[in-house]
Amino acid sequence: MSEFLLALDQGTTSSRAILFDRAGRELAKRYVGVKQVYRRPGWVEQDANEIFESQMKAARDVLFSMSVSAQDVEAIGIANQRETTIVWDTRTGEPIHPAIVWQSRQTERICQTLRERGLEDFFRDRTGLLLDAYFSGTKIRFILDEVPNGQERASRGEIAFGTVDSWLIFKMTEGRIHATDPTNASRTLLFDIRRGTWDKELLEALDISEKILPEVRNSNGNFGETKIFGGSIPITAVLGDQQAALFGQGCFSPGSAKNTYGTGCFFLLNVGGKVGSSDRKLLETIAWCLDGKSDYAIEGSVFTAGSAIQWLRDGLGLIESAEESARAALSVEDTGDVYFVPAFVGLGAPHWDANARGMIIGLTHGTTREHVVRATLESLAYQTYEVLECALRGSGLTLSKLRVDGGASHNDFLLQFQADLLGIPVERPKSLEVTASGVAALAGSKRGFWESKKGLATLVGESSRVFEPKISEDRRQAQLEGWKRAVVRAKEWDQG
């Protein structure tokens, strides 16, 4: 048996490849950036070929760095940005339109038309999702309308749709496999999460041909073999990145939860083997499907989180690095009553307001760069508080601690402020690569490396730090009231 597992973690701003050994140790990792294109306000697109090529470069680089050949790799696991939508020509393997990124709001008009037809509850009941531009179904409709003869080509089976996992699998298997897993399928607006199948009535509502859809296989299923690295390696696990992080954090029991601070914030609460009864402003989704059995989660998706810190650096030049943000925030006692609502592409959960716009409010002559930086970091914690409160209220579950990961969770100031707002401990693992370790554990279990859930103790290990809440209840409530007032102002933007 080969000694290594290769995890591919294709995200919104970078493609990662991480190599693990049989003991679950992270041996090496490589990152390759992926550009985003903003053709119009609110539109976010990527080059699908760049997504694939960047992921392959990261994988080749990490194998080369350890002098590991394809013969030494037992299996590959894939985790991916989820709702990002790619449509390609099945004969040439070339994309027919730029990939529409999950953040993009360019299909809001299609969503509004569906709402006006009275279909909001129909989609919600079948898919667990809201009718929002976030999800893949309306993105497919947009592309079919945009490209010449798109609808006709779809009906003839000449083009294929996939989320990023499907696109990578198709390219890595040289067109032999067109497949996805239930965690990704459940983010399309086309998948019945209770029956675990594509839904003909949902397809009819969006006028999308079933011929373009990938086959849905178990998350720990067989996704073919790739020979792209010089030898044959099986692909044995696929999970959407947020579900991979939930798995990698060991959140296997109902009432366990994680929050990922990435480009956006993604809170997932495990609710077990039945679809959770959530607040209707949150999402019901598949956590994973192992050997034909699905577990479910309630999710709150925040559109703008780490990308707001990036904006401070690249857009305003207020900081030179993300690491500098914590130092700037700690240099002042508070924000001076400044609040920042980073609604660059509208507001996600629990507001789902596509027309809201970003707002910095409470500025005075005494406001400094440091106040604005601190308000930006605090905005990530406020948004997480909103979705967590909603999830617990809707599910009836309680939460004893919040497990966290993602790039911004390196920031001690942010995590302490998060614990203060929530009133519960916030736990950060030693390795923040939980998305990769989660899908690696799943891939390895399929090949007999370890029992998937038991092996996670080896892969994730102990927490590196626990942040305990420190502030008084009066102060916490005052801060939350200020945030709520700021959000109201941001949502009033489109009302003239």
Find the CATH topology of the domain at 4-240. Nucleotidyltransferase, domain 5
CATH superfamily of the domain at 4-240: ATPase, nucleotide binding domain
Which runs of at least 5 residues are low in confidence (pLDDT < 50)?
Answer: none
Return the structural class: alpha+beta
Binned strand content: 15-25%
Rg to the nearest angstrom? Answer: 22 Å
Extended strand count: 23
Average residue pLDDT: 91
User: What form results from the Cα inertia axes?
Assistant: globular
**Main β-sheet: number of strands, strand sense, barrel status?**
7 strands, mixed
If strands are numbered along the chain, what order do they take across the biggest sheet? 17-18-16-15-21-22-23
Helix content: 25-40%
User: How many helices?
Assistant: 16
Q: Given this structure, which CATH class of the domain at 4-240 is correct?
A: Alpha Beta
Distance between the termini: 65 Å
Which architecture name of the domain at 4-240 does CATH use?
2-Layer Sandwich
Quaternary assembly: single chain
Could you describe the 3D structure shown?
The model has no long low-confidence stretch (mean pLDDT 91). A hairpin with a 3-residue loop joins strand 1 (4-10) and strand 2. This protein has a domain at 4-240: Nucleotidyltransferase, domain 5 (2-Layer Sandwich). It is 35% helix and 22% strand. The strands form seven sheets. A seven-stranded mixed beta sheet has the order 17-18-16-15-21-22-23. A six-stranded mixed beta sheet has the order 3-2-1-5-14-13, sandwiched between helices. Strands 4-7 form a two-stranded antiparallel ribbon. The protein has 496 residues and is α+β, with helices and mostly antiparallel strands. The chain is globular, with a radius of gyration of 22 Å.
